[in-house]
Design brief:
The structure is a single chain. Helix content is 24%, strand content 28%. By secondary structure, the protein is of the alpha+beta class. The protein has one domain. A five-stranded mixed beta sheet has the order 1-4-5-2-3, with helices on one face. The N and C termini lie far apart (59 Å).
C-alpha cells in the first residue's frame, strides 16, 4: 500500500509536465502563428488523450490536419472543456486517462513568401 501511495504522489507531482511540439508540415515554409489581438475565425477542435494524468499523450496530432494551408496564419490554444473535465474526472480516477482540447483558428493574414535571399 505504501508503494502505491508513493507512486501516486510521484505521478501527481509530474502531472502536465509535458512539452508540446508542433512543426510546419511544409518543408519549404514556416507556419505563422498569430497573437491574441488578431481577429481570427474558423475554429476547429482536436481532442488529445493522455495517460498518467497528462504525462503521456496517446494519440498523435497530424500537423497537416492542424495547418491545412501554408498561405494562412493560425492561432493555437489548449483548452479544457466540460467534456474533457468529465472524462478526466472519471477516467483519471480509474485509468489515469485524461483529455484536453486543442483549438486551431484560421486567421486571414497570408504568410509572407519565402525567398532565396533569406536563406
Amino acid at each position: 500500500m505504501f508503494h502505491k501511495i508513493i507512486l501516486f504522489i510521484f505521478l501527481f507531482m509530474f502531472q502536465n509536465c509535458i512539452t508540446h511540439r508542433f512543426q510546419s508540415p511544409y518543408a519549404d515554409q514556416a507556419i505563422l502563428l498569430e497573437g491574441w489581438e488578431k481577429k481570427c475565425n474558423g475554429e476547429r477542435n482536436y481532442s488529445q488523450w493522455y495517460l498518467f494524468w497528462g504525462a503521456y499523450p496517446i494519440n498523435k496530432m497530424d500537423e497537416k490536419e492542424l495547418f491545412p494551408s501554408k498561405s494562412k496564419s493560425y492561432r493555437l490554444s489548449q483548452n479544457t472543456t466540460w467534456v474533457d473535465g468529465l472524462v478526466s474526472a472519471l477516467g483519471g480516477m480509474t485509468l489515469s486517462l485524461t483529455r484536453k482540447t486543442w483549438i486551431v483558428e484560421d486567421c486571414n493574414q497570408a504568410a509572407p513568401p519565402t525567398s532565396d535571399s533569406n536563406k
